[in-house]
Amino acid sequence: MSNLYDRLSPIVINLPPSGIRRFFDLANQMQGVISLGVGEPDFVTPWHIREACMYSLEQGYTTYTSNRGLPELCIEIAKYLTKYDLAYDPSHEIMVTVGGSEAIDLAMRTLVCPGDEVLIPAPTYVSYRPCAMLAGASVIDVPTYAEDGFRLTAQALERAITTRSKVLVLCFPNNPTGAVMTREDLAQIAEVAIRHDLFVISDEIYAELTYDGHHTSIAALPGMRERTIVISGMSKAYAMTGWRIGYIAAPEPLLAAMLKIHQYTIMCAPHMAQRAALEALRNGDDERDKMIESYDRRRKLIVASLNEIGLPCHEPRGAFYAFPDIRPTGLSSEEFAERLLLEQGVAVVPGNVFGETGEGFVRCSYATSVELIEDAMRRIGAFVSKLVSQAVK
Amino acid sequence: MNDALRLKVADLLHDNAKLSVDTIAKMLGETPETIAETIHHLERDKVILRYSAVVNWDKLETNQVTAVIDVRVLPQREVGFDSIAKKIYRFEEVKSVALMSGGYDLQVTVVGRDIREVSRFVSEKLATIENVTATTTHFLLKTYKSDGVIFDDTDGERRLMITP
Ligand SMILES: Cc1ncc(COP(=O)(O)O)c(C=O)c1O
Prior knowledge:
Radius of gyration of chain A: 21 Å
Helix content of chain B: 25-40%
Number of strands of chain A: 12
CATH class of the largest domain in chain B: Alpha Beta
Oligomer: heterodimer
Domain Aminotransferase class I/classII large (chain A): 33-380
Strand order of the largest sheet of chain B: 2-3-1-4
Shape of chain A: globular
Largest sheet of chain A: 7 strands, mixed
Keywords (chain A): Aminotransferase, Pyridoxal phosphate, Transferase
Cofactor (chain A): pyridoxal 5'-phosphate
CATH topology of the largest domain in chain B: Alpha-Beta Plaits
Shape of chain B: extended
CATH superfamily of the largest domain in chain B: Lrp/AsnC effector binding domain/regulation of amino acid metabolism (RAM) domain
Largest sheet of chain B: 4 strands, antiparallel
Enzyme class (chain A): transferase
Pfam family, one (chain A): Aminotran_1_2
Structural class of chain A: alpha/beta
Bound molecules: pyridoxal-5'-phosphate
Order of helices and strands of chain A: HHEHHEHEHEHEHEEEHHHEHEEEH
CATH architecture of the largest domain in chain A: 3-Layer(aba) Sandwich
Strand order of the largest sheet of chain A: 2-8-7-6-5-3-4
Strand content of chain B: 15-25%
Largest interface: A-B, 28 and 15 residues
Order of helices and strands of chain B: HHHEHEEHEEE
CATH superfamily of the largest domain in chain A: Type I PLP-dependent aspartate aminotransferase-like (Major domain)
C-alpha cells in the first residue's frame, strides 16, 4: 500500500494541530502543577441534577429520544431563552445537540460550502476555524484588540468583509478574553451583518456568566433573528461539561437543515443526560447563581492580583477567564507559558493558540479555588519580578 | 455600616476564616481599609464570635464522645425557656443549646471523654434541673457532613490539566 498519510483527506491533513497539546503533555509530566489552564467549571454538577439522572435510569429512560431532543426539554429551553428576549417555537426552532461543540459543526456545515468565507473574530475559542475548514470554507480572521476590551468593532468587521463572506461567528462572552458585547456594540455589528447579508453563528454558551449587567443576544436585535443561529448549552452555566448537552435555536428553515445532519450523524443526544438537563433548567437556578457569584469573586481577585503583579489585565466581564498582557516581560506567549510552567509550576494557555492577536497575552482560568489562585499569583509574581529585574540589568 | 457588605464578608469568613483582609478586599472590589473596618465591626458587635476549624475528630486518636440530647422542659412564666437554657449552657461540657419546634424543646450537644462521663452528666446534672421533665440521649456514631463540609469527600480534582 502506498503512503497512508498521502491518501487521507487533504482537508483533514491541513487542519491546524491543537495549540494546547504540547502544554498539556508537558504539564502532565510534572508534579505539583497549579493549573489555570482549565476551560471548565471547578464545581461538580449539583447533586439534584445528578440524582435526577440516576432516577431516570431507574425509570428505564435508556432509549433514543426524538432527533431534536425531548419535547419537554425543548420547551424548557424555549422558556429559558425568553430571559434574553429570544422567542423560539420549541417544536420547530429548537434542537438539543451533543454539546455546543456539535452545534458549531452543524451550523458551519449547514451554512457554508467550498468557496465561502467565514469571518471569525480573534482571539477566540479554538473550534470555529477547524469546523469551518471541514465544511470547505476559508476563514478570515477579524482582529479584536485589548484597547477595545477585545470587543468586535464594526470597522474591523467591515475591513475584513469580501464579496465571498457569508458567515460571521460571534462568541460573547468570549473564551479566552472574557469580553462582552453590550447592546450598543451589537447593534453596530448587526447593521454591518444586515447590509452585507451575513449569517451569524452566535455562540452564547457563557451567557449566564456575565458579570455586572445582563447578556444581550444579537438575535434579539431587529432584523437579526432570521439570519442568526444561537448556540448554547449546559456545560458552563450548570457545571455539566461531561454530560454533553448543548442546543441550537434558529428559524425553522435553518433548524430543519441542521436537524437533517444531526439525524443522520448523531441521531439524538444521550437520553439520560437530557433528563439531567431538564432538571437543571427546571430547578437549577439557585445553585447556578451561587456558582456565578463565586466566579465573580474569584474574577475580581485574579484581575486585581494580575494588575498588581505588573501584568496589565483589562476587566473580563464574562466567562471565567482573565487574559493579561504579558508583553512587559518581553517574552512571547509561548515562552511565557512554557517558562512559567517549568520554573514555577503554573499552567496557563498561551494567547496565540486562540488567534494571532492573542499573541502577547495568556489565558488564566479562574475556575479554581481561591487558595490555588492565590498560590498561583504568588508564583507568577515571583516569575515576573525576576524577569523584570533581569531586564533592568 | 453597609449591611450588604457585612453579610458578604461574614459569608466569606464563615466559609474560610483564613482569608486575608487583602484577599477579601480584592474579591469584593473594596479597599483593604474598608474590609478591615467591616471585620472589626462584625467582631465588636459579636456577629463574628470566634474563628475556628471544622475538625474530623475521627481521624485523630481520641475517644471523646458526642451526644445530642432532646430535652423537654416546662417553660416558666415571663422568662419562657431562656432561664432554663441558661442553666444548661453554663456547663462546660455543653457545646450547644438550641430551642426547637416539635416534640421536644431544647436540643443540647454534650461532649465528654467517654460514654460514662456523658451519662453521668445527663443523669446527675441535666435531668435534675428544675422544670426539666424528660431527656432522650442520642450518641453520635459518625459524622458525614458538618457545617456544609462533607467529611469523606471523594469529589477530588477530576478535570484535565488543560482544556480549550
Ligand atoms: C466558547 C465555547 N463554545 C463552545 C464550547 C463547547 O462546549 P460544549 O461542547 O461542552 O457545550 C466551549 C468549551 O470550552 C467554549 O468555550
